[in-house]
Amino acid sequence: MDDISIVICGEAGQGIETIEKILTKVLKTSGYHVFSAREYMSRIRGGVNSTEIRISSKSIKAYVNRIDLLFALNSKSIDHLKDRTSDSTLIFGDKEIINNISDLIDIPLLKITNNLGNLRYSNMVILGIICGLLDLSKNDIDNHISKYFGEKGEKIVNNNLESISEGYRLANKLIETGINIKIKKGIEFSRDLSKDNLMSGITAIALGALAGGCNFISGYPMTPATGVLSFMSKYSKEFELIAEQTEDEISAITMAIGSWYAGGRGMTTTSGGGFALMEEGISLSGMAENPVVIHIGQRPGPATGLATRTEQGDLETSLYSGHSEFARLILSPGSIEDCFYLTKYAFSMADKFQIPVFILTDQYLLDCQYNFSPLDYNKYPIKKYIEKTNKDYHRYKFTKTGISPRGIPGFGEGLVIQTGNEHDETGYITEDAVLRKKMVEKRTYDKLNQLKNEVIYPELLGGKAYRFLLIGWGSTRNIVEEALKQIKEPRLGFLHFKQVYPLPREIMGYLVNAQKVIAIENNATGQFANLIKKETGFEIKNKILKYDGRPFSVEDVVSKVKKILEE
Amino acid sequence: MEAKDFDLLNIDITWCPGCGNFALLRILKETFAELRINPENLVVISGIGQSSKTPHYFKTNSFHTLHGRAIPIATAVKAVNPSLTVIAEGGDGDMYGEGGNHMIHAIRRNPDITNIIHNNMVYGLTKGQASPTTMMGTKTTLQVEGVILDPFNPIAVAIALNASFVARAFVGDIEQTKEILKKAINHKGYAIVDIFQQCPSFNKINTYEWFKKNTYYIDDKHDPYDRIEAFKRSIETEKLPLGIFYINNKKSFEENIGLYTDNKEPICFRERETNKIQEFIELNMR
Questions:
Q1: Run of H or E residues at B63
Q2: Which domains does chain B have, with CATH numbers?
């Protein structure tokens, strides 16, 4: 076997996250490629949550529906995952807990943990079983456990180590009964994985921001975007960064705007519902030509929607947020690597063009993790555009490009005057019609033209000489890429956009070459397809849309694309 | 340094004749001059309203922002560059209505900024509707039967929240107002200065004469460090007290974030070392 999907399912609070954290790290250290993704309910305890961990000999970066091994911690798990299990799924669980399935492979968790003194050790027993079945070095696991629980004291460490040992013993018994799930190590197939990174989308966004020179983050907690703020708060001293939880989202965005005005590099992180409160800030950023970076971790709306689930539903709200007209840039990373690169890039672009720059991710991408090749730290180097002012400095000076030199207070002899009212070149209020027209053109056409000169082109995956062309953006990238490998149709290409606005001038060139264009989006109306239509007049008739709050799986894409190809 | 160093020539001021803003504009210029604060090192962040236009009428760095949002913007400016003198300026509608939540949390956060509120107890820019500080019973074009809401008491709220510096002034008294403002600006931490002023166009009740008659100055016997006494003064209604009600010396936001304890260099001038990110990732993310 060289690709296996393990799912652990149970209540919130049963320690599934800990299994994920330790297991992915141990697997990667042992030379396996690893991917994990979470789906969880909006509650702190109880309910049914599950985590998928894929292990492979080859690089894997996407979610599959299929479950090869299911570890069920409660009987609800069986029903919860019934659409993802099949006859070939091995289901492990305690017979005393799970009684709604006949072919259960019994793992007496209650009995074992009773001896250990606490049912909470179930997760470590399961971790031991998985590691034992995969024949991972017990020494490696024990080292990780000791490190992971080290701060909690010797007793906790020893109990966890004992639980792992119990798991190994159980695994050996299971192997004796004929269960065999050995996987070839990735290291035997490909490159050395020891230099690979393993991180989530959340961590990559936060590190990308730091790499881009972010020194100010303000936000209000909201799933799934809070993790970015938590990560940056945790390392704020180390990276000399101000990280502030604000009283509301309005304060979050206006603080980020204020930080840029004073020469900082500010960002805010939120989800759609929080972003709804930030819109006047976007408008101010547009009018005052004051840079700002906004990360939106999308989740299904409207209103509270599905608080912990995923959707690509906020492209239009990002595109049209803030009243009236002005330029903006919207980026949509398709991978964890791009979460890092594009967030880094966002800061230099906001600085250069003096506009709001959006980074659109979603719950799926933020919460998933996988290993990937070392990052290129020279890509998108930090560029700063602040200029020292002189006595006759004018904040909104007309230039050929539409971009005025940006000064900051206290740096030079000039005064930096900004306003959200219409203004003259100095920054003072005006109602002059001629000036108004020139300023509108500066903020819209001039900047959009410049932005189009620096557009990030879409990436073409699959068949270069395509007749069928899939079009997507954001988090679907890796899922569709894996699906293409399974479909094996040389005439099928996938055009992935990591910059969704503005679009490249040459976009029609991609579209006219295809006999059939198919949009694939995690929303109900095909927001990106609609944007393409608005910008080019080209209507994408075939749409693969998913809006049940869950991400696409590789299997979803394979079956839906095949169906369209056969039409 | 003189007040005229802050003068802007050939400007078209949009305020009505007799507006209290004119006196406050003069007071501000004189205060900054007497404190020897250069326009280049001064930042005035304003919200929306007639009073929020003030920074357009004298030499200063300024950002005339959104209704109610001057405080968070000013907070960030000061945090990013503590070497600047930062003022958040607006009216009673702006700071107590639209921006009320920010004021409450600025008191808790305690950034080293001075919050100046032009309080004329009415909306000027939108022509005469009730503001959060309009007295009950006042009839307006919107409150046709008279205001039925209790007026907001910013002084009592600030003291209740244990604010760092709480004062009230009246634009009719130039010298006293200047002294209060100087102390507020020099105070380290969030300083709130509520400034009474007349609105000759829309407030026919709380006129210049009304403020003269209905206010008095807190005498020297008052201990501004006594919170209970300060609160008692803040809820007086017969005559409204002017002066410094309360001082509570505590650590400012910039001090509490810890980034300036060992290194005074403003964060906006520090460089992020890219290799530090690489080292971090190689150490923690493998």
A1: strand B61-64
A2: 3-257 (3.40.50.970)
- Cβ proximity of A561 and A401 under 8 Å: no
Number of residues assigned to chain B: 286
How high is the ipTM of this complex?
0.98
Altogether, the residues listed in chain A come to a count of 567
Residue type, A506: E
Closest Cα to residue A239, out of B67, B128, B279? B279
Question: What's the pTM value of the predicted model, to 2 decimals?
Answer: 0.97
Between CA A256 and CA A424 the distance in angstroms is: 25
pLDDT 10s digits, A19-67: 999 999 999 998 999 999 999 999 888 889 999 999 998 999 999 999 9
In-domain check, residue A429: no
Q: Strand B42-46 and strand A90-93: pairing?
A: unpaired
- CATH code (residue A252): 3.40.50.970
Tell me whether residues B267 and A240 touch, CB distance under 8 A. yes
Task: Supply the angle between the helices A109-116 and A122-133 in degrees, to the nearest 10.
Answer: 120
Same domain, A357 and A489: no
Does A188 share its domain with A100?
yes
Is residue A392 in a domain? no
- Asked which of A265-274, B83-92, B119-128 is least confident by mean pLDDT, the reply is B119-128
pLDDT < 70 positions in chain A: 1, 186-191
Is residue A244 domain-resident? Answer: yes
Compute the Cα dihedral for B56, B62, B67, B70 and give only its sign.
negative
CA torsion through residues A499, A503, A505, A508, sign: positive
What's at A278, amino acid-wise? Answer: M
The C-alpha atoms of residue B137 and residue B206 are separated, in whole angstroms, by: 13
Closest CA to B37 of B63, B61, B70, B67: B61
- The tens digit of pLDDT for each residue in A333-367 reads 999 999 999 999 999 999 999 999 999 999 999 99
Q: List chain A residues with CB under 8 Å of B62.
A: 415, 417-419, 427
Q: Does B261 touch chain A (CB under 8 A)?
A: no
In angstroms, how far is CA A553 from the centroid of its own chain?
A: 15
Q: Where are the alpha helices (DSSP H) in chain B?
A: 20-34, 70-80, 92, 100-109, 154-160, 174-186, 208-214, 227-234, 253-256, 274-284
Chain B segment 59-98 residues within 8 A of A by beta carbon are: 59-66, 69, 72-77, 79-81, 83-84
Among residues A416, A421, A368, the alpha carbon closest in space to that of A388 is found at A416
* Pairing state between β A33-39 and A90-93: unpaired
In 3-state terms, what secondary structure has residue A555? helix
CB contact under 8 A, B72 and A281: no
Same-domain pairing of A189 and A212 = no
Which CATH number is A536's domain given? 3.40.50.920
Distance between CA atoms of A191 and B208, rounded to whole angstroms?
81
